[in-house]
Amino acid sequence: SLSLSCFRSVSVSFLWALPYRQLQADAWRVVTASDDQTVKVWDLHTGRRLVTLRYHTAGVTCLQFNDRQLVSGSFDETIKLLDFSVC
Question: Which residues, 6 or more positions from 57, have their beta carbon under 8 angstroms from its beta carbon?
Answer without folding.
Answer: 37, 74, 76, 78
